[in-house]
Amino acid sequence: MITVHEENALIDRILAGEEALYAQLVDKYKSFAYTIAIKIVENRPEAEEIAQDAFVKAFHYLKKFNREAKFSTWLYRIVFNTAISYKRKNKYSLHSIENEIIEYHERADHQMEKDDKHIYIAKALNNLSDADKLAVQLYYLNEFSLEEIAEMLTQNINTIKVRVHRARQRMADELRKILHEEALTL
Amino acid sequence: MQNITDNELLDFLDGNGDERDRARIEKSISSDLTVKKRLEELRLVHQFLQGNTLSSPSKNFTQRVMSNLHARPASSLLSPKNGLILLAGLLIASLLALTLTSSGAFDQWHGFLPFDSSPLKNKWVTLPSSVPFDIKVFVKVVVLINAALALLLLDRTILRPYFQRRKFS
Prior knowledge:
The complex is a heterodimer of chains A (186) and B (169).
Chain A: H1 4-15, H2 22-41, H3 44-60, H4 71-89, H5 96-111, H6 116-126, H7 130-140, H8 146-152, H9 157-185
Chain B: H1 6-14, H2 19-31, H3 33-50, H4 61-67, H5 80-102, E1 110-114, E2 130-134, H6 135-168
Antiparallel strand pairs in B: 1-2
Helix pairs in contact in B: 1-3, 2-3, 5-6
């Protein structure tokens, strides 16, 4: 685990011409970048392409990284912007929602013993606005602080807190509605 | 709901709040069925979201990034859909221009461009009084430029992303 100070020293060496050292930064942050991209585009091959593209962009703009924020926060912002712009360009893609449901369905099969409620919750998650969905998913990864999520989404912490609370409330409301409808049909 | 809000229940699930708040919520849960039911709904959502974990990219991810370090970032290009629309537009405009040219629609459009009253002309800059101008030649040049742009678009927005994706998958 390298410290912020060591990371800055590493960046200095990369900027001085030791490009091969960039692989250390890629290795350290690739899972985070890939996960953020998946949460946005909901498709694994596209997320991989976006994460790679974001790392290449970060390398190109490394000189402009001003060290006021952490490298990770700066990188996540690039990943977020790359993914959002990719999603906008390909917003009529047909596979996204299906992939998301399958992903959660598989997880539900594995961990929650085929509990139907989890499939309903996955559907409720898909019905959220993109911003609420992303905020709540990043929050539950337990890998990013609220400050990091706020900076990534260019919103303040309170807005993120509201989004996370509201997303969970809406998912619970949706679950209640579905279960109520199901009970009526029995 | 005995003044217990969703936000308080969510904070309770997140482990936030002090001892007094938690005791008040626990008391409410044990005495009020509505609060208990709502907490269960929120808990199901909470547990579901807790299954959210970091995903790992492919094994050669780092290697692929390092080999593309000096490539132009791919996502800054036009989307395939927009590229296709632009390509179709270029082809339609070129075909229209060629049809009009071959049908003789521009045959009368030639003559001389006068430079007598040009503001550029002064004692240091000397310009001819006029130059011959043929719109047919001009249209053909535009069509040629369009064809070059169309090929570039085809490569950058359709073929290259397609083969890159195929290579990846």
